[in-house]
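Write out the 3D structure for:
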Amino acid sequence: MTDDTLVALDGGAFRMGSDEGLGHHGDGEGPVRTVAVDAFRISRTAVTNAEFGSFVDETGHVTDAERFGWSFVFQGLIDPGLLASAPPVPGTPWWRRVDNAAWRQPEGPGSDVSDRLDHPVVHVSWRDANAYAVWAGGRLPTEAEWEYAARGGLEGCRYPWGDDFPTGASARANIFEGEFPTHDTGDDGWRGSAPVTAYGPNGFGLYNTVGNVWEWTADRAVPTGRVTKGGSFLCHDSYCNRYRCAARSRNDEDSTTQNLGFRLAADPE
């Protein structure tokens, strides 16, 4: 982790959460409350495939997805030849359990990240993300730190740039546009993940804090797991309006999916 990858933020009090009721029942976005964070540093982007590869090369780390032998992949991005052997997840059939899907081959056998080294690493569990953070000399951000940073200094806005969500050529984030889950138009420029600097930064110089991939935080979730923030390229208003600063979800510490990554934080120097 180098100094130029981290933005130093002074911290302070901010209005965290949302009372709009746009998230899923039980997400716990509200009520809006005043929260104070101390000074901290946070990376401008999510950790990339290239960066995670350096960690693996140096440490020999084996991710949870690799140990388990499978991970969850969105059906619209799977090679049709793999669908028959990739059972759908009950209740969310657009997710498929794909054997040997992992960070190096995000869509399973036959895929690789050689042309996506600047995309966020995915199929990493909280435990994988935490191991990387320790190796890099940092840590995962708390949920409050993450949201403070994601807002970029804007008080109470829905998105890092304001309250409106431009689409098409004016898009500011990578989400699912079209008819979910059957057709992503890609009008925002991408189907699946995008490079970590695909859109302009927020007021603090951070990229893609909403959309693209969910990001792990250090905070424990109730009743189980860890809090994730930011939404992903699969978020769509019809079921997952979570590509907002206040939005939150949770996953078990060993969970891995094609749309879940992380960024680093650190204490002040």
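Helices lie at 49-59, 64-68, 80-83, 126-135, 143-151.
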